[in-house]
Each structure stands twice: as structure tokens, then as C-alpha cells.
Write a structure and sequence with these properties.
Blueprint lengths: L6 H24 L4 H112 L3 H49 L12 E3 L4 H7 L4 H10 L2 E3 L6 E5 L3 H17 L4 H29 L7 H9 L4 E2 L2 E2 H18 L4 H10 L14 H11 L4 H9 L9 H15 L8 H16 L4 E7 L4 E7 L5 H18 L7 E7 L8
Parallel strand pairs: 7-8
Antiparallel strand pairs: 1-3, 2-3, 4-5, 6-7
Helix pairs in contact: 1-2, 3-9, 5-7, 6-7, 7-8, 9-10, 9-13, 10-12, 10-13, 11-12, 12-13
């Protein structure tokens, strides 16, 4: 093939052809007279052509040898690959043979194990058969000895086992309950102590006042006005009663609504400072004070919500929250009490793994009903729950307001958290203040009610009225009767008395035997 001829061979052949052509041309031009010179040129060209042909043949042979060497190299490489695959196949064949031998050994072992298992199963079946025969024989002998049928014996045996298990289970349950109660009591004390330690509040109680100082007694006449027109106009505008008696330097403002009473107090102070006291001025100042009071109420409610980081409250709820600033319970400011409950409830919830923000919201709004209990019928828990539900608060917040005094079945853990925080806030030192007469009267009422029950020898109110210890007669009351007396006294306190927090009733029954040795 021409494509496989080396370039040197082609060049040589071309040279021969060109040389021959030149020779013919030369011979034609010079004629016969130049034959000698032409012959020399022809011989030289012939020699050159032969040399180039030889070179071309040599190059062709070298190229052929190179191709043969390359083919031999490729063939050798292919043979090596084939040998490598043969060795791999030999190894795999050997491995398969080894695996086959292993499988045969495993089959033999499994077959042997199956045979042994079959023998053991036959032995077990025979043993079961023997045991069944023995049990049947013993059952017949037992039936002959006891005179009981199989069903009767089973019932008696099951009854004995059930009684034994009941006793054992009951004992275990009591032990576990005791341990759980101890752990729960310890954990709850730790949580409450840590929470109250983390929260620091002022120990002073705020209280609103309805008394107004006047510079002199002549001012009383100006407040009353001609034929009482000033005092009537003032009472009509404010909705409160103004009491002016012989007490020097003091005018008393009386009213059930604390906000109205505060508006009246501020308006009267402005009138006294202004000196112009007549119906038109009274109307003007009362309206002005009412506007200021509305702004103050909203500001107090907003500040309280921001203080405990409770966001998203609607404007009516904020206004109700601000009204609590002018409401007191046992001389404790209800708004500050609500803020305290929010902080304590939030910390309790966080320590128990609950939502601290939701607990704060429940605690802040739990007494919201006290801001409207003068305008609506019912107790403040129900009023507050209705108001919160009406303004779109969630079920947890509504339920906390409704059940923080344990008057309903608790459905959410936040209700218990708020009730606990409420008790902590109300019972901390300095939170609430009572007059001495009221304190003594409440102690006497607790002891008197406890003594009314048959079997009670003596009753003592301790811990500022938060616990009543009752001594029951051992002759007139046994342990069951003492437990019933304890429950009845607690129910009587709930029905007949009004008190903050809770009262613990402890009934003690004691038997004493005395002998004299002479």
C-alpha cells in the first residue's frame, strides 16, 4: 500500500523518474554527438537511483521491523493480561472449591445438629408426657384427699394468689408513693425557694386613701356651698359620697369604685387649691381630672405589661390592668401583686420546663376581674375569665384567671403555677396588712368555728391564722371520726369565712393514761 511506504523511498523513486526524464531530454537536445557525456550522466543517475532505491528498501524494512516489534509488544501485553486473568480465575476457582467444601462441612454439621435436636425434642416430648402423667396422678390423689374438683381448686388457688399479689402490690405502691411524695416535696421546696430567692420585691404595701386634708374648717362650708349645692354637684359628677363631720382638717370621700374615689379625691384637692368652688367649676375640674385619670390608667397598664415583658395586649385589657393600680386587697396593691405573680409564675414555669412567657401572661392577668367587679355581677375569677375570653386571650390565660383559687377542675398546668405564685405573693412578709382588731377577730372566728364540732376539746389559730390546730378528745372521737372532723372544719372555713390564701387544719387526737405509784 502507498500509504505505508516511507517518505525516503518515494523521494528515491521520484529522483529516478526525474533522472530518466532529464536523460531523455538531454539525449534529444545534443544528439548523438554527446553520447559519451550523456552515457556518463546516465550512469551517474543510474547509480544514484540504485542507491536511493536501496535506501528506500532499507527504510521500508526498518519500518516493517518496527511494525512487527510494536505488534509483538501488543501481543505480549495481551498475552500477559490473558495470563493474569487466568491466574485470577484459578484463584476464584480455588476459592469456590474451598467454599464448596466449607458448605458441605456446614451442611453436615447442620444435619448432625438437626439429628441431635430431633433426639432432644423426642426426649422432651417423652418427659412432658411423663410429667403430664405424674401431674394427672397427683391431681387425682389431691382431689381424693381434698374432695375439691379441678375448677374449685383452681379458683381457690387463684384467690390465694390474688390476695397475696394484692397485698404485695399494695405494699409496693405505698412504698413508691411515699418515695415519690418525699422526692416531690423536696423538689417543690427547692423550686419555690429558688424562685422566691431569685425574685426580690418591695416589702412595703401601698394603699389608697379616701381622706383629704383641708387648710381650715371654713373650707368645709365652701365645699358644702349654699344650701348644699356644691357638695350635691360634686357627688353627682363623681358618683361618690362626701362625708364632712366634726373631725378637724379632714374631709372623707366614700365610694365602692376605687377609680371614681381617686378621681373625686384629686378633683377635690384641685378645687381646694384653686379656691373657686361652684357647680360649673366642679364640672370642669372633674372632667379634666377624669381625662387625666384615663391617661394615667392606660400608662400604668402599659408600664406593668412592659415591666413583665407581656406584649400584644388589647387596649381594653391594658385599661383594666391600669385600674388595678387603684384597687387593694388586704392593703396590698393589686397591680403590684399581679406583677409579682407574673414574675414568680414565669420563673416557676421555666424551672419546670414550661413556657415562661405564657406563665407571665397568665400571672399578670389572673386578677383582671377585680378591675370590673364593682360594675359586673359575680366573683372576680369568673368576671376576669369572661373579659379575657371576650378579648381573644388563649385558653390557658382564661383558665388561669378562672381557677387560680381552686374553684374548678384544673385543666392546664399554668393554672396551678399561677395559684402557687399567687399564694407566694400574698403570703410573703410585708405583702398584706391588717388592722389589729381585724386580725384578732379573724383568729377568734377560726377558733370559734373549730370548737363547734362534737369531739373537739380545744382549737388554736397559729401562724397569723394560716393554720388551725385542733385537739380532739380520744374518748369522743376515734381516728376515722378525727379525719372527718378535720374535713368538716376545713369545709366550714371555706363556706363561712373570707381569708387570703389558704388555712391549714391539723386535728390531733391523743390518749393519755396516768397512774400514780405510791
Amino acid at each position: 500500500m502507498i500509504g505505508t511506504i516511507a517518505p525516503e523511498i518515494l523521494f528515491g523513486i521520484g529522483g529516478v523518474v526525474l533522472g530518466g526524464g532529464a536523460l531523455l531530454l538531454y539525449s534529444a537536445l545534443i544528439g548523438r554527438g554527446a553520447k559519451t557525456k550523456a552515457q556518463m550522466i546516465l550512469d551517474e543517475a543510474q547509480r544514484n537511483a540504485d542507491a536511493k532505491v536501496k535506501d528506500a528498501e532499507v527504510s521500508l524494512k526498518e519500518a516493517e521491523l518496527k511494525r512487527e516489534a510494536e505488534a509483538e509488544r501488543k501481543l505480549s501485553k495481551s498475552r500477559e493480561k490473558i495470563h493474569q486473568r487466568e491466574r485470577t480465575l484459578d484463584k476464584r476457582e480455588t476459592s469456590l472449591q474451598q467454599q464448596g467444601e466449607d458448605l458441605k462441612k456446614q451442611e453436615q454439621f447442620i444435619e448432625s445438629s438437626q439429628n441431635r435436636l430431633k433426639v432432644k425434642l423426642e426426649q422432651i416430648a417423652q418427659t412432658d408426657k411423663d410429667l403430664s402423667e405424674i401431674l394427672e396422678k397427683q391431681r387425682k390423689e389431691l382431689h381424693q384427699m381434698t374432695g375439691l374438683s379441678k375448677e374449685q381448686a383452681e379458683k381457690r388457688l387463684f384467690k390465694l394468689l390474688e390476695d397475696e399479689l394484692d397485698d404485695e402490690v399494695g405494699g409496693r405502691i405505698l412504698n413508691h408513693e411515699k418515695k415519690v411524695l418525699e422526692i416531690c416535696e423536696q423538689k417543690s421546696r427547692e423550686i419555690l425557694l429558688m424562685t422566691t430567692q431569685r425574685f426580690a420585691a418591695s416589702h412595703t404595701s401601698e394603699s389608697t386613701t379616701s381622706t383629704i386634708d383641708i387648710p381650715n374648717d371654713d373650707m368645709k362650708g365652701r365645699i358644702i356651698g349654699r344650701e348644699g349645692r356644691n357638695i350635691r354637684a360634686f357627688e353627682k359628677e363623681t358618683g361618690v359620697d362626701v362625708i364632712i363631720d366634726d373631725t378637724p382638717g379632714v374631709v372623707i370621700v366614700s365610694g365602692f369604685d376605687p377609680v371614681r374615689r381617686e378621681v373625686a379625691r384629686l378633683s377635690l384637692e384641685k378645687l381646694i387649691a384653686d379656691g373657686r368652688i361652684h357647680p360649673s367649676r366642679i364640672e370642669e375640674l372633674v372632667k379634666e381630672t377624669q381625662s387625666e385619670m384615663d391617661a394615667l390608667i392606660r400608662r400604668k397598664g402599659t408600664e406593668a405589661a412592659q415591666e413583665v415583658d407581656v406584649l400584644g395586649l388589647k387596649t381594653p385589657i391594658i385599661d383594666l390592668l391600669g385600674r388595678l393600680q387603684f384597687r387593694t386587697s388586704y392593703s396590698q396593691n393589686v397591680l403590684r401583686h399581679s406583677v409579682e405573680v407574673a414574675f414568680i409564675a414565669g420563673m416557676l414555669a421555666e424551672m419546670m420546663g414550661l413556657d415562661g412567657r405564657l406563665a407571665k401572661r397568665c400571672g399578670l392577668l389572673h386578677d383582671i376581674g377585680k378591675a370590673a367587679d364593682h360594675d359586673m355581677e359575680g366573683g372576680h375569677p369568673k368576671i376576669g375569665a369572661d373579659l379575657l375570653k371576650r378579648h381573644g386571650e388563649c385558653e390557658e390565660v382564661v383558665h388561669a384567671a378562672l381557677g387560680h383559687h381552686d374553684e374548678i377542675l384544673v385543666e392546664y398546668p399554668y393554672t396551678v403555677v399561677v395559684a402557687t405564685a399567687d399564694a407566694c405573693s400574698a403570703s410573703r412578709p410585708g405583702a398584706r396588712r391588717e388592722s389589729l382588731d381585724r386580725y384578732i377577730k379573724r383568729m377568734e372566728e377560726l377558733e370559734t368555728i373549730a370548737k363547734e364540732f362534737k369531739g373537739v376539746r380545744q382549737a388554736y389559730a397559729v401562724q397569723a391564722g394560716r393554720e388551725v390546730r385542733v385537739i380532739a378528745s380520744a374518748k369522743d372521737a376515734d381516728d376515722a371520726r378525727a379525719a372527718k372532723i378535720c374535713r368538716e372544719i376545713a369545709s366550714a372555713f371555706e363556706e363561712r369565712l373570707s381569708y387570703p390564701g389558704e388555712v391549714k387544719v391539723v386535728v390531733i387526737r391523743e390518749s393519755r393514761f396516768i397512774e400514780l405509784a405510791r
